[in-house]
Structures are given as C-alpha cells and as structure tokens.
Write a structure and sequence with these properties.
Layout: H1 2-20, E1 23-29, E2 38-41, E3 59-62, E4 65-71, E5 79-82, E6 91-92, E7 108-109, E8 112-113, E9 126-135, E10 142-145, E11 160-161, E12 168-177, E13 184-188, E14 197-199, E15 204-205, E16 215-216, E17 219-220, E18 230-237, E19 247-250, E20 263-264, E21 266-267, E22 273-280, E23 282-288, E24 310-313, E25 319-323, E26 344-347, E27 350-356, E28 359-363, E29 369-374, E30 377-380, E31 387-393, E32 396-402
Parallel strand pairs: 1-7, 9-16, 18-25
Antiparallel strand pairs: 1-4, 2-5, 3-4, 6-8, 9-12, 10-13, 11-12, 13-15, 14-17, 18-22, 19-20, 19-23, 21-22, 23-24, 26-27, 27-30, 28-29, 28-31, 31-32
Length: 403
C-alpha cells in the first residue's frame, strides 16, 4: 500500500512538473519578402512587449513561415508580430492600418508590415526633400515622423508652401534623417495632432528608389487658417483642496504638450480659474495643479487615472466652462513627489520596471507620455532612443537612462 501511495505521489509530481514546463508553439505565415520575424506580447520578462529582446526572434521555416516555442505562456496572452527588432516594424492590416492585439492561434497570418526589416542593410543617413500635394485650401503644413521620434509639429519641421495650381498645392521640406531606409512620416495641416492626415490616415514610407515624386494627401481631420483663429477663454471650477495654482498644458503652442509653455490660470473671486489661449482654432489640453505630470487632473470615471485629453476649438468654445473633479496629487508641502523604490533599469534600449502593482507610464523630459499600461508584475517598455526618461509607477516616479 505504501508503494502504491508513493507511486501516486511521484505521478502527481511529474504531472506538476509537466504543467509548470508548459509551452505554446506560435506559427505565423508572413508576406513574401520578409527576412526575419519577431513576436512581442505580455509574456514573462524580459520579453514583456519587447521585440528587441533576443528571445523574441522566431525561427525561419521557409520564405513565408516562422515559428517559436515560448515557455510559461498561455492562450490568454496578447501579442503582435514585427518584421524586425523594433515597434516601427510592427504588423498592420492589408491597408496598412493598426490591428488589435492577437490572442493565441495555432496558425497566424500577417497581412502587411509597417516596414520590412532587412538585416543586410545598414542605416543610411541622408538629406532628403519631402513633398506633399494637398488641397489648395490647406494653408500650412508640418512634417512629423520617425526622423525625430515623432516629436510632433515643431517650428523646425514647418514645410514651405508652393504655388497653388489646379485645385492643389505642394508643400516641401528638406532635412537630414538618421536612416532613410526606415523613414516614416505624416503631414499635419496645422500646429498639432488635431490637424492629422485623414485620407490617407496611414504613415508614409520613404521609397528605396532614387526617384521620388512626393505624396498625395486628399483630406485632413482639420485645417489651420490663421485668419480664422481666435482666443479661447476657459473657466475651470476646481477642488477646494490642492488648487492654490492651476495650469493647462496642451497642443496650443509649439512644441505641443510642453510644460514650459503651460498657461497659468488667473484665480477669480469665486475660486475658479480662467485661462486665455490666443490664436487657436482647435487644440487638446489637460489641467495640472503643479508643473509636473504627476499633478494631473483625475478622470472622474476612474479616479486613479489622469483625465483624458480635453478638446476645445474656436469659435465654438470661445467661452468654455469645465469642472475638475480632483487631482492625482495635491500641491502642498506634505504631498511631494514620491520616489519609486521599484527596481528600474535599461536593457537593449528598453526600460524594465519590476514589481508593478497597478499602473506604469514612461514620459520624456518634456512631460509627453510615451507608453503606459495597467498591469501587475514586470513591465518592459518599447524600444526608445538613448537619453533620460521619467518612469511613473504606482504613483511614484524615478528617472532612468536608456543607453
């Protein structure tokens, strides 16, 4: 009897070992001309959404098929494929638009890539001239793209307007890019993302060929017309506690979402604050009770989160009123910014944060949010350029250097 019991315990132990060593095989069919394939998802660290991790590279079966076996994964995990070790090579739908995260399938199919990674081609810095043909109703254009990590509309990326002809006009700009092989770009019909392309909505890819006839854009979400710009006045009702001073920051100035360009509100006798935003047509913004992204207004539906971007336009919101439900932190001496105690480090141009219990966000030094997630466990960011970044984890912050 003892032997039978011991044998049963051994079987259970073997079963537990097999369960802990469970793995899933991921198979994918890719477009012809794909050189490599990488998988990135909410897998255990260090592969957590990290196509840059060496373990994300899949094994090539033939010209259009790749496979990989990942331990400690299950069918609920989300993921996507990339043609190279960076998110700029992520998969798209057939039309080149973003797709939702995948869940496990035994036979995935990639319809298209944002860019096709070629490991045999070295980065080629080059001076390029980009031309965009747009409707002649467009009066101003800005170039945005991978050449400066999608920093948005800037004075330095404002394009030069040509002579209108036949219902259209060509805007152009000449700049030096770090790698013409992976250059992607879009055109904005105004000084911010509110004026993004609408038709087509996808990024443009600079061609490998020497000849280049420019791009055609048929429509934008909005267009900026300086003659129709005006002043928007926003009056904010704010909480009694933690509202000694209030600012707004947003896309009303260049560079967009820049804390040094924040507008400080004028406090009224009834405790409200008034903000005056001149020379605008359409813009996005949020309120802060301190010039720090940790002091953003809360989302009244999910108080633990920052408020979604607000929008305003002239003349519809020439005199707008808003209500701030609360602050993520109160601007008082006893509510200084809490320093994160998590283990935070950089590897392969990603930022790794261990011990996340609720939420995580990565900002650049201008305060622009680059990536955020709600999760428990170890977070691995997208691939970033070398530099200094700010990590906010579970309400605490810490700076980290990406090498």
């Amino acid at each position: 009897m003892k032997k039978i019991f011991t044998f049963a315990i051994a079987l259970l132990g073997m079963f537990a070992m097999l369960q802990s060593a469970s793995a899933l095989v991921y198979n994918v069919t890719v477009p012809a001309g794909t050189f490599e394939c990488y998988i990135a998802g909410n897998f255990p660290a260090p592969m957590n959404w990290a196509p840059t991790d060496p373990g994300a590279k899949m094994t090539k079966v033939d010209a259009t098929h790749f496979t990989i076996t990942l331990a400690n994964t299950d069918e609920t995990m989300k993921y996507k494929y990339c043609s190279g070790p960076d998110w700029k090579f992520v998969e798209t739908d057939a039309a080149g638009l973003n797709i939702s995260d995948r869940t496990y399938s035994t036979a995935d199919v990639v319809l298209n890539w944002t860019l096709v990674y070629d490991p045999n081609v070295l980065p080629v810095p080059r001076k390029v001239t980009i031309e965009a043909q747009v409707p002649d109703s467009i009066l101003v254009c800005y170039l945005v793209g991978s050449f400066n990590n999608w920093a948005g509309a800037l004075d330095s990326t404002k394009m030069t307007m040509g002579t209108p002809s036949g219902g259209s006009v060509v805007f152009s700009i000449t700049l030096t890019v770090p790698d013409v092989n992976t250059l992607q770009f879009k055109v904005l019909a105004g000084p911010g993302w509110d004026y993004d392309q609408l038709d087509p909505a996808t990024n443009f890819t600079f061609p490998k060929a020497e000849s280049y006839d420019g791009v055609l854009i048929n429509a934008f979400k909005k267009r900026f017309d300086p003659s129709k710009a005006g002043t928007v006045i926003i009056t904010a009702t704010v909480p009694t506690v933690g509202s000694d001073s209030v600012w707004i920051v947003g896309s009303y100035s260049l560079p967009n979402w820049n804390l040094p360009k924040a507008i400080k509100g004028v406090k009224n006798g009834d405790g409200t604050f008034t903000f005056t935003v001149p020379d605008v047509i359409a813009f996005s913004y949020v309120c802060l009770n301190k010039l720090d992204w940790n002091y953003k207004e809360i989302d009244p539906l999910i108080p633990a989160n920052g408020h979604p971007d607000r929008t305003a336009s002239y003349p519809a919101d020439a005199n707008a009123s808003i209500t701030v439900a609360g602050w993520l932190n109160t601007n008082t001496a006893v509510h200084d910014v809490k320093a994160a105690t998590n283990k935070i480090y950089s590897i392969n141009k990603t930022i790794v944060v261990e011990g996340v219990t609720s939420n995580i966000a990565v900002f650049d030094l201008s305060g622009r949010i680059l990536q955020s997630n709600k999760m428990i466990g170890t977070f691995t960011s997208n691939s970033f350029n070398k530099g200094l970044y700010i990590v906010r984890v579970d309400g605490a912050t810490k700076k980290v250097v990406v090498n």
